[in-house]
Structure formats: C-alpha cells, structure tokens
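Example 9 (inverse folding). The structure is encoded as follows.
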C-alpha cells in the first residue's frame, strides 16, 4: 500500500513541473550551464523565480566538488545570519554527521563587536577563526558584505575554509566584497555577482550542494 500522502505527492509533482519549466526556459534563453553548477543555479532560480541568476552565478574551478566533498566529510556549516542557518536542510546535513552554526548571538561575539566596532556578522567570523572553526568549514554568507570582507582578511591570516558561498545582497560594499572573493585562488568559492544575493539564495546554494552530496541531483 502506498502510504505517501496526497499532499506530499502533489508537492513532488509541482516541484518536478517547476524544474522542467526552469530547464526549458534556460534552454530557450540559450543559457547552457554545465553540471554540476547547473544544479545549483536551478535551485536558486526555483527559490527566486529570477533567471538573471543563471548569468550572475559563478564558481571557481572545482568549487562545487569542494563543497560536496566537505559536506560528505561532515563539515561544519557557518552562516553569517540566522536566516541562512534556519533554512539549511538539517536532515541531509546530519546524514553526513555535519552541523550548522551562526555565532552572531554568542556573548563573546557581541562583546567583540562592541570592542572593535565590527558588525556582529564580521565579529562572528573573527571569533570563529579564533576558535579554529573556520578550517575545513563551508561558510555561507547571504547577507553581510562586512562578514565576507572579514573572512577574506582571515584567509590572509591563515584561515582555510573548504569553500565560501559569497552571496551578500545590497548596495554598500556588496559588489566589492564579491569581487575581492573572486580574485582569490587560495579558496574555493561560489558567488552571485553584483548586488543580488540574499539569505534565500545562499540557503538554496547550500541545500543544492547537499542534494548533490547525497546523489539526489546530478553531480560531477
């Protein structure tokens, strides 16, 4: 007997139809994106209904594979804001023994921010580095360019995240922070160029990587 509820079945059908529409529209626009990056772009478009992300999303060589491998090792996922943390698929992450954290509300981070003048998101990155949490981590930034700039500075100081998802959104230092990340050759990165990005986009990227890691979507 099929114990799958009609609502679950309907949801799966809607998702399948949505991705079929996305792929058809990408093809109609002559936007051919190679796998495995295509799986990420499709998830971002599914989340935003914005096909511009097909042209804005960029990845360093081997970045998608680096993200998949880090997740399969059970890495820590560090986010710049709680909204990104809340949206990450815990079931798939825990399947590999991984976990997700946002340190913005940590008392030590708040004290560091007050003492240094850093934003809390940036202070959280600095504190995470001091605790040794950044090395081998997947860092997902969907809101704060200050956090991305601080992370880049910490990489200069020896931090070694497995991959950086650099997708802050906004008008002040957003473009510049992403450009600075894209200039790096010592860390894997996935970026949405320009002003666009945001917590839902960063979350969709991490969840797409998780689906690739579990083999539910096509991977390299």
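The amino acid assigned to each position is listed next.
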């Amino acid at each position: 007997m099929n114990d799958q509820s009609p609502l679950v079945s309907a949801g799966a059908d809607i998702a399948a139809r949505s991705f079929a529409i996305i792929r058809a529209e990408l093809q109609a626009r002559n936007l051919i994106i190679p796998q495995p990056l295509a799986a990420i772009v499709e998830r971002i478009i599914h989340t935003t209904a914005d096909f511009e992300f097909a042209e804005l999303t960029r990845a360093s060589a081997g970045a998608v594979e680096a993200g998949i491998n880090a997740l399969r090792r059970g890495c820590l996922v560090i986010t710049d804001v709680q909204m990104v943390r809340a949206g990450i698929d815990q079931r798939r992450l825990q399947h590999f023994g991984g976990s997700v954290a946002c340190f913005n509300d940590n008392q030590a981070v708040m004290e560091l921010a007050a003492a240094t003048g850093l934003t809390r998101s940036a202070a959280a990155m600095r504190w995470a580095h001091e605790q040794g949490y950044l090395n081998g981590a997947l860092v997902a930034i969907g809101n704060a360019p200050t956090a991305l700039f601080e992370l880049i500075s910490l990489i200069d100081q020896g931090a070694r995240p497995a991959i950086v998802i650099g997708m802050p959104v906004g008008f002040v230092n957003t473009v510049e922070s992403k450009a600075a990340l894209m200039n790096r050759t010592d860390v894997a990165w996935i970026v949405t160029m320009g002003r666009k990005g945001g917590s839902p986009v960063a979350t969709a990227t991490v969840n797409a990587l998780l689906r690739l890691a579990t083999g539910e979507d096509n991977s390299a």
